[in-house]
Amino acid sequence: MTTGLRERKKLRTRRALGAAALELAVRHGLAEVTVEQIAEAADVSPRTFFNYFSSKEEAVVAADLERAGEMVDRLATRPADEPVLESVRAVTRAMLGEPGARRKEWVRQVRLVRANPALVPHQLAAYAAIEQRLAAVIAERAGMGADDLYPALTATAVMAATRVATTRWLDSDGRTELADGIDEALDLLTTGLGHPPSRAP
Question: Which stretches hold the DNA-binding feature (predicted)?
Fold first, then answer.
């Protein structure tokens, strides 16, 4: 879907503010960063900052929200008859395979959240918003209502599986592949959680 010049400029400003907030928080520590510093780094006024974010904490987690939103947008373009979890797997693999600074930015943001409990409520609020969007996409694919149990539960399960896989990957210090971890989590959702997977002796 194409967007107008105004929307593209707003998106660039939002990304610039989020990137500045993350960079400053990583460099100086979240507690030491002010909205004024973030606005200055993004070359906008503090008043403009508050047109996009309600706090510096919300700005720091913006990259995670945007990345999850991109996943939902891509999922909406997958074939309607493709199983939902296979669509999620394909979209996730494609996004993780793309090089660029935005992935590094996302990893830095996840690590920052883990080190700063004050950011957790803002991240959870962002995930809740994404789960609603994801549920709406799943409901449309399934020909169901957005308030039906299946799309709501599937969206929540997908987001939870992604978060758990990401946490395990970060804890491995790069010894595992994130895409493989997400595949494993999605496999468990596909086969069901009634019994734990068997382990080779």
Answer: 34-53
